[in-house]
Amino acid sequence: MGGISEDLEGDGIGVGLSVNILPSMALSASYSTGSGDVTSFGTTTSGDVEATSVGILFHAPINDTTDFVAGIDIIRGKVDLEVSGMFFSSKDADGNSIFLGLRSMVAPQVELSSNIYRTKIEADTNTDIEIGASYYIDMLVSFNISYELNIDSSNSTLLSVTKYF
Questions:
Q1: Over the stretch 67-108, which tens digit does the pLDDT of each residue have?
Q2: Which of 51, 63, 83, 95 has its CA 20 to 30 A from that of 123?
Q3: What dotted CATH number matches 10-163?
């Protein structure tokens, strides 16, 4: 699947949680929704996506400040499409995602991370590289930014807030 060279716009929101079950393992769950529009040759195609996932995360220390991280998620989703304002189709879209990466506290309040994701939804497989930074305003709250490079299509920027309990 090649990149989109036309006018692509989109946004979304999500919420996720993870619960430690062992010192180096956690269960995770998330819900997200988003929409996007692409206009090509005067025709606008709009898509609405809703997805839930459950998964397991692992981490192992490399040294005092750096961890290796890995995980797998099972994804259940739904996509609704409109073309030029007219309903086109609705489809369930299920799959999985596997990732591995590194995270490192480079300063007392700053964490840098990098991950590689392989996501398979139905017959489509994508590979993403994500680079991120987190600023901890205290031990329980962080502001995060990441840039995701999708090898096969568009790139995205994510802004988030994490609250630890």
A1: 999 999 999 999 898 888 888 889 999 999 999 999 999 999
A2: 83
A3: 2.40.128.100
